[in-house]
Every structure is written in structure tokens, then in C-alpha cells.
Specification:
This protein is mainly α. Helix content is about 45%, strand content about 10%. It has helices at about 25-35, 55-75, 85, 100-125, 130-135, and strands spanning about 1-10, 15-20, 40-45.
């Protein structure tokens, strides 16, 4: 996982984007399109932003949510709109395609939030403040379940 920054050349706005695949260029193009960017640059370095402790905590929450949603969009045979869409399939015993992926994503979401809470509590108790890059590097990896699903049972 890696964090990139997209600068909108029209408005000057800067967007933080988490990339979870090895094909960063394609994923960045897709996310820029979702944001609505047509004329943008990828920044090599994070912009310098001075944040309060509350803003820093909110930023780590945003990063955690973005990672979870990004993984959900790539999970399963078709991907999901976001994590909320994905987990809605967890209780659906009639959906043999999406349910196993949804159950795996529920566990992944839990692991990500546990990791985030541990990192933030360590920092709040006097430990070093993690950089966004360090924080993302420590996020749990999602392991796609074996695709042994009977697609004919849809």
C-alpha cells in the first residue's frame, strides 16, 4: 500500500489517494476519474500540512477507511462499491458468490481498525507519531479467498 497525492491543476486542490495494487498508474487514473479530475499531476512528496492532534487522528481514520474501501473494490470476482456494500452480503446465505468474500472482508475491516487503534493509542501514550507512509506500511494485508465458488448457484 502506498499513499499518493493528486494535485488538481484547475483548482489547486490536493487529494490524498491510497493505492493498494501493484499497478499504481492504472489505480491512480481510476481514482482520479472517480474524484472528477481530468487535469492533474501526481506529486512526488507529501505536501507539508500542519495539523492539530484531532486533525491527525481524523487523518488516520480517513486513511484506514480508504484502505478498507479500496480493498473491497478489488475483492471477489466482481469487486464491491465499498466496504458497506461488501459486508451487506455477509448474512446472505443465498449468495454463494459474494458471501464468502463479504465474510473475509468483515474480518479484514476488523483487523484494520484494531491495527489503527493500537497505533494511535501508542502515539497518544507518548510513542512516536507514525508518518502516513509508516502507518500504511503496517496495515494488515488482505488475502483473497480461494475462488472455488460454484458460479452456477447464483
Amino acid at each position: 500500500m502506498e499513499n499518493f497525492w493528486l494535485k488538481d491543476n484547475v483548482t489547486g486542490a490536493i487529494y490524498s489517494v491510497v493505492v493498494v495494487t501493484e499497478d499504481a498508474k492504472t489505480e491512480l487514473e481510476k481514482k482520479a476519474s472517480i474524484i472528477g479530475l481530468t487535469d492533474y499531476d501526481v506529486l512526488d512528496e507529501a505536501p507539508t500540512i500542519i495539523r492539530t492532534d484531532e486533525e491527525k487522528i481524523n487523518r488516520f481514520r480517513e486513511l484506514t477507511s480508504e484502505v478498507i474501501d479500496s480493498v473491497a473494490m478489488l475483492a471477489g470476482p466482481f469487486g464491491f462499491d465499498n466496504i458497506l456494500s461488501a459486508v451487506s452480503y455477509a448474512a446472505d446465505d443465498q449468495d454463494s458468490v459474494n458471501q464468502p468474500h463479504a465474510i473475509a472482508l468483515v474480518a479484514y475491516r476488523r483487523n484494520c481498525w484494531v491495527y489503527a487503534r493500537v497505533q494511535l493509542l501508542a502515539w497518544q501514550k507518548g510513542g512516536p507519531e507514525p508518518t502516513e507512509k509508516e502507518f500504511l506500511a503496517g496495515m494488515p494485508e488482505y488475502r483473497e479467498i480461494e475462488d472455488k465458488i460454484d458460479l452456477l448457484r447464483i
